Amino acid sequence: MKREVDGKIIECVEGDITNQPEFDAVVNAANAQLRTGGGVAGAIHRAAGPELYEECKPLAPINTTEAVITSAPNMSNEYIIHALGPVYSSSSDPEEELAKTYRNSLDVAEENGARSVAFPAISTGAFGYPLREAAKIAIKAVVDYISKLDSVEHVRFVLFDQSSAEVHKQVLDDAMA
Fold it and tell me: Which CATH homologous superfamily contains domain 2-176?
């Protein structure tokens, strides 16, 4: 499902974040040390191979809301943007921290000339952010921010299962109503 905001595309799909070949950058829901792990971080590190961790080492640790960029070895994308979202239960302001994580990721994409960015549902796995609430924050952050960007023209939310994709599609529909 696609929507247009100021001539730019925002969409939500069910799929695999590691298989977005037409996108310049994919976002990794990273941990502070930029290591492999479970969920999105594990999938991206497995797809990219050990070269990715070697490239990540000098960039770590990163702070909550921070985003850094690496190449995307062994993947069809040019970049991986590693973003550290908030841990829901221990954040003093999880809503603002999550929104800032998305904005910072878009800033990094913009600074590197990426025209298209694919996001997972940051912080909704092991970091415990409730899915619908996280989707509302993420989509609002992107909808409100995308018109301020020159390079980024296409943002895709890639959700790992049908129910997560449906939640994001409904939230995007509501945001555009």
Answer: Leucine Aminopeptidase, subunit E, domain 1 (3.40.220.10)
